[in-house]
């Protein structure tokens, strides 16, 4: 099963009431050379300025982004192109947040979530491998964490590869 590392930026804490502004995805393989980036126009008038500021975009800029249905359909097509008939697994740094938005947007705008009802949490995986709930994997990233979702997803995928190569994580990529 192919792993897709995902990172999202939003203008608030939950989908529906607030909007996913952008997201990035990286097929986890040795090259990390297959990526997807989407920018989505707001679906709600609600937004929290401090949350939006993390994305680096103004509200006016986000209003020029593509509609959610177009972006999520393109993402579904990208997933199909890189995964073929294999069911993808969503993994992220904070899957409680990232997966919530991705799942909601897929179900709401496309009608189906290709990731199904499950996802994996990179931070929890690392804590389990270290047997320490206070450990953090972020030092394993190579790509700088910039809050551009492709950079952040790539850095997280790099950390997963380090866990495989040097820490003995058993994973098929």
Structure in words:
It is a single chain. Helices cover 40% and strands 16% of the residues. With 173 residues, the protein is of the alpha/beta class. The chain has one domain: 2-Layer Sandwich (Nucleotidyltransferase, domain 5), CATH 3.30.420.10. Strands 3-2-1-4-5 form a 5-stranded mixed β-sheet, with helices on both faces. A hairpin with a 7-residue loop joins strand 2 and strand 3. The radius of gyration is 16 Å and the shape is globular. The termini are close together. InterPro entries: Ribonucl_H, RNaseH-like_sf, RNaseH_sf. This is 3'-5' exoribonuclease.
How would you concisely characterize the structure shown here?
The chain is an alpha/beta fold and 173 residues long. It is 40% helix and 16% strand.
What is the CATH top level name?
Alpha Beta
Give the N-to-C terminal Cα separation: 7 Å
CATH architecture annotation name:
2-Layer Sandwich
Number of E-type strands: 5
Order of SSEs: EEEHHHEHEHH
The number of helical elements comes to 6
Envelope shape: globular
Which structural class do the helices and strands define? alpha/beta
- Give the assembly state of these chains: single chain
CATH superfamily: Ribonuclease H-like superfamily/Ribonuclease H
Using only C-alpha atoms, the radius of gyration works out to 16 Å
Average pLDDT, to the nearest integer?
A: 97
For this structure, the CATH topology is: Nucleotidyltransferase, domain 5
Strand order of the largest sheet: 3-2-1-4-5
Q: Note the beta-strand portion.
A: 15-25%
- Main beta sheet: 5 strands, mixed
Low-confidence parts, pLDDT < 50 over ≥5 residues? none
Q: What is the helix fraction of residues, given as a range?
A: 40-55%
GO molecular function, one term: nucleic acid binding
Protein name: 3'-5' exoribonuclease
Domain Exonuclease: 5-159
Pfam families: RNase_T
